[in-house]
Amino acid sequence: MFKRFFTYQILANLARLAISLLVLVSLIRVIFSPTRFDQVINISLLVLVLIVAGFLWQFLIWTARQQKKLAEVLRLRSKFIDLASFQLRSPVSAIMTALSFWREGLVEKLPAPEKLEFINNLYQRGQQLGQVIRDVLQASEFDTEKITFADKHLSLLDVAVVAEQIKNNFTEAASAKGLKLLFKNEAKQTTVKSFADYLSEAISNLVDNAIRYTKTGQVEIRLSNESKILVLEVIDTGIGIPPADQAELFSRFSRGSNTGDLPADGSGLGLYLAKEIVEAHKGGQISFTSQLGRGTTFSIYLPLAK
């Protein structure tokens, strides 16, 4: 639509230019002699050619920019299709297989502990599928425009309560990998203005990432204050992020080059969404430090509520 509008604008400008030149030529014909009239005509035509060339040059520049944007869209589309072919197909296939076993009565024949494990696995696959879908929908929402949370739409939120709940939510996942999941509150003030669901999603994405890419050791959620800022850190003893991958870490579908032997069961949008959510808060910032083979620390900075 914009391209069509832009083309119409060019044609309209050229039409106005042509009419103006015709009026000018008519006046010149009346005022000047034939010889001088021919010279003026030649100059006028040269000016018209230069103006048209200027419009065409602007149009070519605009077209080149649009092609660059299209190339980026196509690149992201390709990455999303590659990711979706596994991240969506894998849980759906597992769920369909499990339901097939159930329909055939095979699950009912299992001993109680194995039946419970079967049901838990099915539930986890459903959660995985739901998370991928939620991430894609949220990414689409943030991708439409740069969102900024207006103060009048925010409510007071105790981040200590949110962090404690997230710690409880991920304790089982951490224990399943033999990891310790800790929560340490060193902050005197922990209240900010935010959307509870959005901020919880951002912190959960960081914790989920930390657990996924930590083989041994622990993951810690830590709160502290710096002047009038609340700092939330997610600290892990994981595999770390290679320096070559750090610049693109918050990009959509980004994944470290050293994660080959670890399960890629996320959407590839977690860190991208975390950054978008945090920076949608006025004064909100997110950063990280990492040492390869030793771990990573993600830090969220949010202004304290006044």
UniProtKB/TrEMBL annotation:
Superkingdom of origin: Bacteria
Spans through the membrane = 6-28, 40-62
Write out the catalysed reaction: ATP + protein L-histidine = ADP + protein N-phospho-L-histidine
Which GO MF terms are attached to this record?
phosphorelay sensor kinase activity
**UniProt keyword annotations, A-Z:** Kinase, Membrane, Phosphoprotein, Transferase, Transmembrane, Transmembrane helix, Two-component regulatory system
Q: What class of enzyme is it?
A: transferase
Family matches, as PROSITE patterns: HIS_KIN
The UniProt record lists the EC number as 2.7.13.3
Pfam family, any one = HATPase_c
Where in the numbering of this chain does the Histidine kinase domain appear?
Answer: 83-306
Against SUPFAM superfamilies, the record matches this protein to: ATPase domain of HSP90 chaperone/DNA topoisomerase II/histidine kinase (SSF55874), Homodimeric domain of signal transducing histidine kinase (SSF47384)
Keyword Cell cycle included in the entry's annotation: no
How is this protein named in the record? histidine kinase
Q: Which organism is it from?
A: Candidatus Vogelbacteria bacterium CG22_combo_CG10-13_8_21_14_all_37_9
